[in-house]
Design a protein that fits this description.
By secondary structure, this protein is α/β, with parallel strands linked by helices.
């Protein structure tokens, strides 16, 4: 079955599929041919620049703990595509994943529908969740919201819009108001929307759709939450606001039990025995949040950074925000074709730095905190999968 998974992976990463092309026409066409499985499901739909994945992980764990059969669709993955599609915390099997990828690609090719990688994955998720009679799906947008492939859904229990900042500006707009407009595209008629930020575009979309808008203050107690990071208070507040609104019968005892078990790899993930932090911060706002958490949890510890990122990110600003004079700095050029070269990164850095060839070359000194950040795409080249167990 591993062989079939590898064939499916090859298909998804081929030049014909591995690109971004926003729009709902192609995904709608193939879902129609599949019998519109997405219409058989109910959703929490989450959009935003940062925090989406954490909100999704929290929601899914609470819903699972409450006894609901819960689907979770997120991106990106770290090691395998199957990480993106889960039911009650378990990844889709290699066998089911490959079967559905082949089925959907064959159907699309027969009907001259040119699906992107993300559209194929989204169709796989909808079909898998519908075939398995999932009660609720926690659905994370891939990019933006209005024209994101996930936005074909109709039965939305609640829309959640997390923190908004500048990212993917070439596609979503060059200021936060334009980006908020794209994210607000997930708001459906008579569907409540929850957010922490009062952008006019979100208010306008809620008014236009006759939808209840709830502004949540980020004051929830994170004591029981297994996820670390100062920013998790806002994410937890959004998730709990949605649960209380849609499923008020879920008890606080169930919620608190669930919070202890939330897993969301590579988001300020602390590997204690390695004195290591893995964080997927990949835009300036994410870097600011990472620094705030480092200063809060480890104010006096010397830091060693391993940083690599994609060329389409604002890496100059990230480098400027991240490093301080006495930090030990390594840059890493990973295999993605859009990865920044070490020389590109070094040219923006005002402090001395080195190239990292291999993570195993490092001496993980217990007096130095090692922080890996900058891109999810490089983590599978540096990190042992056992760190995430």
């Amino acid at each position: 079955m591993e062989n079939n998974y590898l064939k499916a992976k090859e298909l998804l990463t081929s030049q014909g599929k591995f690109y971004i092309n926003l729009g709902l026409e192609r995904i709608s066409a193939v879902l129609e041919l599949l019998g519109n499985p997405q219409d058989k499901l109910k959703y929490f739909h989450i959009a935003g620049t940062n925090g989406k994945g954490s909100v999704c992980a929290i929601l899914a764990e609470i819903l699972k703990e409450s006894g609901k059969k819960t689907g979770l669709y997120t991106s990106p993955h770290i090691f395998k595509y199957t990480e993106r599609i889960k039911i009650n915390g378990s990844d889709i099997s290699d066998e089911d994943f490959a079967k559905l990828v082949f089925e959907i690609c064959e159907l699309a090719d027969k009907n001259s529908i040119h699906l992107t990688e993300f559209e194929i994955l989204t169709a796989v998720a909808f079909k898998y969740f519908a075939d398995n009679n999932v009660d609720v799906v926690v659905l994370e947008t891939g990019l933006g919201g209005r024209f994101d492939a996930t936005n074909v859904i109709k039965n939305n229990l609640c829309a959640i819009i997390t923190h908004i900042d500048l990212d993917h500006t070439e596609r979503l707009g060059d200021n936060k108001d334009k980006i908020a407009f794209e994210k607000a595209g997930i708001i459906k008629p008579n569907c409540p929307v929850i957010t922490c930020e009062g952008y006019e575009a979100i208010k306008d979309a809620a008014d236009k759709n006759d939808s209840l808008l709830l502004m949540i203050a980020p004051f929830e107690n994170v004591e029981n939450l297994s996820l670390k990071g100062c920013y998790q208070q806002e994410n937890l507040s959004l998730a709990l606001g949605a649960i209380r609104l849609v499923f008020p019968e879920i008890s606080n005892e169930i919620v608190q039990n669930a919070l202890k078990n939330v897993k969301h790899p590579a988001r300020f993930q602390i590997i204690e025995n390695k004195n290591l932090i893995i964080d997927g911060a990949h835009n300036p706002n994410g870097i600011i949040a990472l620094k705030e958490s480092l200063d809060f949890y480890y104010p006096d510890k010397k830091r060693r950074y391993i940083f690599g990122c994609l060329q389409n990110k604002d890496y100059k600003k990230m480098v400027d925000l991240l490093f301080e004079k006495n930090d030990e700095i390594y840059f890493y050029h990973f295999s993605n074709k859009n990865s920044c070269t070490v020389s590109e990164l070094q040219s923006t850095c005002k402090y001395p730095s080195k190239e990292l060839k291999s993570f195993s070359d490092l001496d993980l000194d217990s007096d130095v905190l090692t922080v890996i950040c900058g891109s999810f795409y490089m983590l599978n080249e540096l990190i042992d999968p056992d760190y995430f167990l």
